[in-house]
Amino acid sequence: MTRKYKLGAVFVLLGLGLITNSVLAADPFGLSAVGNSLGGTFTTSDPRIIITKIIQIILSFLGLVSLVLIMWSGFIWMTSNGDSQKIEQAKKILRNAIIGLVIILSAWGIATFIISKLTGAAGSGGSTINAQGGNLNGQGLGAIGACSVSSVYPENGKKDVPRNSVIMVTFKEQVKLDSVCINNSGDSCLCNKTDCRKINPEVIRLYKSDLGDACSNSSCPEISSNITDVIVSASSDNKTLVLIPASLLGNSDGNSSYSIKFTDEIKKGDNSSMFKGCSSDFLEWSFMVNSTLDLIPPLVSSNGSFPSPDNEKDIYSNIIPAQPASASIKVNDCPLIFSPAKISKVNPAVIQSTINYHGSVSKFKISVPAENVNKAQLFDDKNNLLGIADFDGSGEVKFPNYISIKVGAHPAGSLWEVDVAPEQLADTLTVNGETYVFASTGENNNIIVPKKCDQEEQAFNIAAKLSGSSDFEVITRAAGEGVDINLGKVAEFKEGQAPKLLLKAKVAGASGNMINLSTSNPLSLEINPFKGGIDRQETHTTRDKKDQPMNSIIQIKFNEALNPLTVSGPASDVSSYIQVVNANSSSSQSGASCNSDAQCRSYKCENNICVGNYLGGKFVLSSGYKVLEFISDKECGVNGCGEKIYCLPENSHLTVELKAANLKNCESDNDCLSFSPFKSCLNADLLGYKTCQDNNKNNYPLARLDALDGIVDAAVNSLDGDRSTISDGPADFYNDNFDLATNNNKKDKYKWSFFISDKIALTPPKIDSILPTQGQSNISLSEPIQIKFNELMMVSSLQPGSILVDNGSSTVKHHLINLRSSVAQPLGFWISADNLDVDPLDGEPDITVANIFHSALSESITYKAQVGSGVKDIYQNCYKPSIGPSCLATEEKPSCCFSLPASSLDVDGNCF
Q1: Is-contact 439 426, C-beta < 8 A?
Q2: Which residue spans within 410-533 are E strands per DSSP?
Q3: Exposure letters 787-826 (e unless 16+ CB within 10 A, then b)
Q4: At what angle do helices 3-24 and 84-119 cross, to 10 degrees?
Q5: What is the pLDDT of residue 52?
Q6: Are 631 and 702 in contact (CB under 8 A)?
Q7: Are 217 and 123 contacting, i.e. CB atoms less than 8 angstroms apart?
């Protein structure tokens, strides 16, 4: 071998050795970041980690030996100068080194598999936890967003979580409570606040990430490193679970990474697994707990309320009320129903004739050519050849999609003439994209046509079918003017007058003029299209802040996550903690006499009696448990997607009242020993009981866990209504409409008031921008996807998944916000929203930015983000998917797909 080739061989062998050593020295088990979460320093006493490190060191040493042997064999070979003995010696060393390398790599593979299972703690789902506390591979996150889970707290990968934080998870469906709770005897039971409130440790597993899940797929050891002493509470709708560990998480010396897993044993109401159909059959996420306690109480963010505090009602003058658009349908004759083509005559007569024809030709000819008596030719009335077919053994000839005849004999030159009554298509009536077909039966979207034409009966049938429209109503008219559908009969009409249906748009304004009304038979149905809709006109003078429309959502933004148990649910369930009421202090309580709604605290006067002490509706907590919204239960119309909208009382003055929780009380200083620096048990100002206090007589902010009676955060600290950073308990209301001087010593309940007009806002929201942009590449694998809307949004609609909307005639699925991968892989995502003030002159938030947070994306994979028509603005108007950046959709192509107009979606309503 020449010196040139020898040098080449040495460099190849040297490169192989360096690669081998690099692989073996590179923490092959992914454990360098595990341990006590302090930069991966190996200080743990877990025997699994110790064994892992020992094996890692041994294999690294053996890899180094292999490298030395490979380099040494190369040196001998290179310096042999053609000596055959030295070359043979070098080959032998190299051969043995390679055999050793194969053994080392095999051992590395086997050890990697075994130790990954050990460190995964037999049933942890194979997730990898990094030093920042996040679930890296996302397998356990696949249920969030894309499947059965809406949100979790703390979020996956969240750092600096206080030791006294609770853990929360919100599902999209109700939880079967006896699948998560056990009593003191360890038996499954329905969660309650007394003898059944502990987590089932086999179903809900909380553990330190470096120790792993101590439970297997089906059972847990009696002595377990998992944290099992955890109290669980459920929200009123049984969709949100709040877990409170009996002992503080972490320690006072440093950070600790925790993981929590919900197995497939957590059930829905129908007893099926909550994760049925998900990309993984469990939920698992991780977070990092720091060494501190959260002793800062929650507060309503500055400018975090909508409507904003408003002290004066606006002035409206020169008012011209909005007028609804109207239309009419005059029934001059009964529309035609579908009638198939028929053979009226065959000359000369035949044994049998049938037809399957959908065209307009009324006469056919069938002839037998002289050259072949077994064939027949089909011609139309203009002698155009339509087809050639064979007679079968029975004398029948068939022309597909036309006609067939059966004859006794068919000699050459035979000719048959067939007269046909062509097919008659059914007439249709189209209203705002919904097409109704006239037929002899009334199922689906069919409108019945009387067997014997009766114009009045036909008008009644049309009215009955259209009466369920979400866009307009059929007006009941007096005799001679229309159809009285309420009486279930047709009104009388003047002699010789065709019956007429009168239609009126349900929402007043010029938008009603856009309701489409058309027919395929304008002679029978004389259409007068929708017109005459006029928007309200007025002179408006804003005083203090602008009065908001009736269909407003009340929105409250907090500075941190809240515990949902006392704020989320029907108004009747949380009325002891939060209420929307008449701002007039002289308004009457429930049961008092009244003449109008405005005289009642509830704005509800029925039969001259006030009903209730607060407005009816529901409170919804969303956006990482930081945004609370109130939706009234008073129906007042539908939005552009056919979904009901709900209104606050018109021309009303409303107050929202939030109650702080009572603080944890004490009997003596001994009760406060563990609450340093709140070590003194003293009488609390304005509360009438003792609390743990510091040297400045500030109260320990923790609320009473045994009798939670107010608004608290995720660390169970009571509301700070006056934004003083100190918990004073439910002493008095801080009113955000007034300045600090007026609010002197008003603490720690919170309220503000505002005015509602008699308007309804109807303009749908738009998307101004999205990041990353359509088709952008080389994006961050961890940064959120940002969607910027042009106005304030109803944050509780910025959720993953979809909703079903019953618009009267059908049930339609409307998508919300979703994130999908182009390949099958677990992908978890959750949504948070922020309101931004982009107009510095008004000092109020103007737009909403939604962020889609997600588990780590994979490289070289395409992802699709979706905003659907289930998303709504602060006035409950649905987002129209055709309106987006760089997308000019049309009526024919109403959807926006990948920045281009699209005419159709797939069966699930997604872009192709």
Answers
A1: yes
A2: 415-421, 428-431, 434-439, 446-448, 472-474, 500-505, 517-519, 525-531
A3: bbbbbbbbbbbbbbbbbebebebeebebbbbbbebeeeeb
A4: 20
A5: 62
A6: no
A7: yes
Look at residue 609 and give its three-state secondary structure.
strand
Q: Name 438's bridge partners.
A: 447
Tell me: cis bond preceding 837? Omega within 30 of 0 counts: no
Identity at 294, one-letter amino acid code: D
How far apart, in whole angstroms, are the C-alpha atoms of residue 796 and residue 422?
56
C-alpha–C-alpha distance, residues 259 and 266, integer Å: 17
The closest of 699, 696, 701 to 681, measured between CA atoms, is 699
Task: Indicate the residue type of 287.
Answer: F
Contacts of 189 (CB under 8 A, 6+ apart): 178, 181, 182, 183, 195, 196
List, as one string, the DSSP characters of 772-795: SPTT--S--SSSPEEEEESS-B-G
CA 740 to chain centre: 40
Give the three-state DSSP class for 377.
strand
528 forms bridges with which residues in the sheet?
Answer: 328
Cβ-based burial of 651 (10 A; exposed 0-12, middle 13-18, buried ≥19): middle
- Closest by alpha carbon to 463, among 441, 436, 444? 436
Taking the domains of the chain in order of start, what are their residue ranges?
3-119, 294-317+538-663+701-762, 326-336+426-531, 342-421, 767-902
- How many beta carbons lie within 10 A of that of residue 339, not counting itself? 12
Maximal CA-CA distance, the chain:
127
**CB atoms closer than 10 angstroms to residue 245:** 19
What spatial distance separates the first Cα and last Cα of the chain, rounded to whole Å?
Answer: 62
The torsion region of residue 617 among left (phi > 0), alpha (psi -120 to 50) and beta comes to left
- C-alpha torsion 444→449→455→457, nearest 10: -60
Are the CB atoms for 133 and 254 separated by under 8 Å?
no
| Residue type at 498 in one-letter notation | A
Do 587 and 577 contact (CB within 8 A), yes or no?
no
Looking at residue 279, its amino acid is S
H or E element in which residue 459 lies: helix 455-466
pLDDT, residue 204, reads 95
E-state strands within 237-379: 240-245, 256-262, 283-289, 300-306, 315-320, 326-331, 342-347, 352-355, 363-367, 375-379
Contacts of 377 (CB under 8 A, 6+ apart): 366, 367, 368, 369, 385, 387, 388
In order along the chain (912 residues), what is the average pLDDT of each group of 10 residues?
44 42 37 31 45 71 79 82 80 83 78 57 42 56 91 94 96 94 91 88 94 85 89 92 94 92 93 89 94 95 94 88 92 94 93 92 94 93 93 94 93 93 93 89 91 91 86 66 43 64 89 90 94 87 92 97 95 96 96 96 96 97 97 91 91 97 96 93 92 95 91 96 94 93 89 95 90 87 93 96 78 89 84 91 90 89 90 93 69 74 74 76
Q: Please state whether the peptide bond connecting residue 677 to the residue before it is cis, i.e. omega within 30 degrees of 0.
A: yes
Query: How deeply is 327 buried, as exposed, middle or buried, from its count of CB atoms within 10 A (0-12, 13-18, 19+)?
Result: buried
| DSSP label of 276 | T
